[in-house]
Write a structure and sequence with these properties.
The chain has 415 residues and is of the alpha/beta class. The chain has a single domain (5-23, 122-414), classed as Aldolase class I (TIM Barrel, Alpha-Beta Barrel), CATH 3.20.20.70. Helices cover 38% and strands 11% of the residues. It contains 16 helices and 10 strands. The strands form 2 sheets. It has an 8-stranded mixed beta sheet with strand order 3-1-2-4-7-8-9-10. α5 (85-97) runs antiparallel to α9 and α8 crosses α9. The chain is globular. The protein starts with a helix and ends in a 10-residue tail after the last helix. 48% of the residues are buried. Bound molecules: iron/sulfur cluster.
Length: 415
């Protein structure tokens, strides 16, 4: 799969769990969740009881995960449980959806009824804008066969400069999907050789219920003709381009794929807890250095505290992660530098991609009907000087950024 020697070395060193699952040398976390027994009657349990059982099983999961990593336990000897830790997570997300707090807005609206909508403007149904083999992600993520990326519609932030505005600002983009159809999309991508399933948007957090249920269904699955015809409406590439093979996707007889959370990280604490035992690698954005900029450019309060806490949590858990920061014009001093400083202080060895590809989009694009004068400061590309300033600052802080950032940068080699 990953044929390039240097790339393999990076992956083994910095993203060891992700790499092992991607190569089917280890089972994805969700396969372990299936093997932990839930002792509750899920039909009767209250929210508090579900949380308590989740806490208990989370501890058991961590022990099992270490044992699997160290080859102290044989996967083959672990029995699938009913109900399992994964079933418990499904029940939990269903309960949360009735008083939604998937993200930091904590709207507490009942999305199953849809009478009142939260900030994301979503009811229960999830929609997928498109899905495909993504070759634009970072090298360790896209490999040679692409990242199996699934784009969900709508978002919980309101970024004036959104680079995916057609999906995140249009909640009716794409096709409505059930958990089963989502699982089929993921299955198809992995069987075609994708190195991971990359949940992105918009924002995946606001679709947590559909995603967790889809994960619980991941297995050997052949779509009916009708299902295939339906999901292919959202596939942005020809179906016949890739050969499907079990060789790409199985670990000891079970469908296996690393799950990647590609998110703005504006998530609630309970969402973080639910993700911990099912996500194999995180790809979080860290956009703003201050709440002032987050409110002005994304209409998002409590940004820095929420997002930095979530980054710190993943780092403390010891999970594989790769942080993205987009350099924005006129925001190097107030955003780029404080973000890089925070990373250097709190997680100095983490992989960082400092991206220089910002271009004016949506409300920041002077040629768009959506252009808004209030965002005129973002109506241009960052200058060479701003980009070099960001890179030099990252260098002075000793950050691990060159590997990923210079790959696509226009200016990197002149820094
Ligand atoms: S996902 Fe976030 S924005 Fe949407 S209803 Fe839930 S808490 Fe509100």
């Amino acid at each position: 799969m990953y044929k390039l020697g240097f790339q393999s070395w990076i992956l083994r060193k910095h993203l060891p769990w992700y790499y092992a699952v991607s190569l089917n040398e280890r089972p994805a976390k969700y396969l372990l969740c299936r093997r932990l027994k839930c002792d509750l009657d899920l039909n009767d349990a209250s929210y508090e009881e579900l949380l308590k059982e989740h806490e208990k099983l989370s501890k058991e999961f961590l022990t099992l995960w270490e044992d699997i990593k160290e080859d102290r336990v044989k996967f083959k000897e672990l029995k699938i449980q009913n109900p399992s830790f994964l079933d418990l997570k499904v029940k939990l997300v269903d309960k949360i959806l009735e008083k939604c707090e998937f993200c930091r807005w904590h709207c507490k609206v009942d999305r199953t009824k849809g009478e009142k909508l939260g900030t994301c403007q979503l009811e229960e149904t999830s929609r997928v804008g498109c899905y495909f083999h993504h070759f634009g992600e970072e090298l360790p993520i896209r490999g040679c066969k692409g990242s199996g990326t699934i784009f969900f519609t709508s978002c919980n932030m309101r970024c004036s400069f959104c680079q995916n505005g057609d999906i995140s600002h249009d909640k009716l983009n794409g096709i409505p999907i059930s958990p089963k159809l989502l699982a089929l999309m993921a299955y198809q991508l992995r069987m075609e050789g994708c190195h991971n399933i990359n949940f992105v948007g918009g924002e995946p957090t606001i679709h947590l219920h559909t995603i967790v249920k889809a994960i619980s269904l991941l297995d050997f699955m052949e779509p009916t003709e009708e299902e295939l015809y339906y999901i292919l409406r959202a596939k942005s590439e020809f179906y016949f381009l890739y050969k499907r093979s079990k060789e790409n996707a199985f670990y000891q007889g079970e469908f296996n794929v690393p799950l990647l959370w590609n998110s703005n990280f504006f998530m609630s604490h309970i969402t973080m807890k639910i993700l911990r035992e099912i996500i194999d690698i995180y790809l979080p954005d860290f956009k703003f250095g201050s709440d002032k900029c987050a409110i002005k450019l994304s209409k998002t309060p409590w940004y820095f505290e929420t997002v930095s806490n979530n980054h710190r949590l993943v780092y403390e858990w010891g999970d594989d992660m790769l942080i993205r920061h987009l350099i924005m014009p006129n925001h190097v001093e107030c955003c780029t530098k404080p973000v890089l400083e925070w990373i250097a202080k709190n997680m100095p060895d983490v992989l960082v991609n400092i991206m220089d590809q910002y271009h004016p989009e949506y409300a920041c694009d002077p040629f768009s009907v959506n252009f808004d004068e209030r965002y005129a400061e973002l109506a241009r590309r960052p200058t060479e000087r701003e980009i070099k300033d960001a890179y030099n600052y990252a260098k002075s802080l000793g950050l691990n950024f060159e590997l990923l950032s210079y790959e696509k940068s226009v200016y990197s080699y002149k820094v």
